[in-house]
Amino acid sequence: MRYRNPDGPADGYSGAPVGHPVADLNLLRTFLAVYRSGSFTAAAGLLGVSQPTVTTQIRALERQSGRELFQRLPRGVTPTAVAHDLAARVAAPLDALAAATGPDSGAAERTAPVHLAGPAELMCLRVLPVLAPLTAEGLRLRVTPGLTDPLLEELRAGHHDLVIATYRPRGRALTAMPLMDEEFVLVAAPLWADRLADRLPADGPDALRDVPLVTYAEDVPIARRYWRHVFGTRLSRPAALTVPDLRGVLAAVVAGAGFTVLPRYLCLDELASGALVPLLEPEDPPINTGYLVQRPGRPDNPDVVRVRDLLLEAGRSW
Q1: Tens digit of pLDDT for each residue in 112-136?
Q2: Does one domain contain both 92 and 157?
Q3: CA neighbours within 13 Å on the CB side: how many for 297?
């Protein structure tokens, strides 16, 4: 993103070198809001000003510094190396100034809720048990279940603090940290597994032709990935039953509705009890990595850091 300076040289940049003191602290506050939120629009919402005001202030700061600070993306912006350096130098002093001059801003930050979003099943079975003890210590948590694509868009817009994503987002507008690996397993209830025991190893996916497929979406994404990885072929059949929650898929398959592909962590108890049977145990099962995603920069709310660090630690054992 290059801004033309009508009073400067032809390349659009002039002014003091990076590191030159900037008189207007509002410019730096606006810069930090854009840096942390990942977009001009989200920063405007955080600051309570219009988006054109944010754009004008960033332009002014770029003219004063003589450097480009942000590059535009189809959604949001990404900081340049100069912006990373500037944020590292000004974030702590600006935060300290806000804490010293604001109306008990430290207490307000401390009690602000942490907005966390991710797949409903993972949140319920893995994440909430880990975070539950923090509520007794004063943590306020707001959880939003959903699919990765819309949740990442909402994260860019400043609606969430952290998102657990099923893939690493592209670009540098968001920061993604590996959280956990989930293994996918092909399962059915014993009544189906007994019929398929001899046929599946010999016939491959053709053995499942007459068995109903249960999944959480019409485009059967998990099953399609399993077919590609294990069988080396494309899954083209439609689902017999769709339930937009993997826990519902699990319940239906345990009840005998057909077969499905599930994350192993979701059906550990059913596999252990025999309520579900793995139809195959490939040497190289499909693995998907989940990511903990946030906007660049250190979060203003220290509880966001607590939640992030605790989840990353717990993810090592998931």
Answers
A1: 899 999 999 999 999 999 999 998 8
A2: no
A3: 30
- Strands, E, within 136-246: which ranges? 141-145, 162-165, 175-188, 214-215, 241-242
Phi and psi at residue 122, in whole multiples of 5°? Answer: -65, -40
Alpha carbon distance 7, 5 (integer Å): 5
Half-sphere exposure of 97 (CA within 13 A, CB side): 9
66 lies in the same domain as 141: no
User: Number of structural domains, the chain?
Assistant: 3
pLDDT in tens, 199-219: 887 888 999 999 999 999 999
What tokens were used for 281? 């145990």
Calpha distance 66→234 (Å, rounded): 53
Task: Could you list the beta-strand ranges (E) of the chain.
Answer: 70-72, 77-79, 114-118, 141-145, 162-165, 175-188, 214-215, 241-242, 259-263, 277-278, 287-294
pLDDT value for 172? 78
For 240-288, write each residue's pLDDT tens digit.
999 999 999 999 999 999 999 999 999 999 999 999 999 999 999 999 9
**Beta partners for 287?**
183
Q: Mark whether 186 and 259 lie in a shared domain.
A: yes
Burial label, 80 (beta-carbon count in 10 A; 0-12, 13-18, 19+): middle
pLDDT at 173: 84
CA distance linking residue 24 with residue 76, whole number of Å: 25
Residue span of the structural domain in which 298 resides = 107-171+289-315
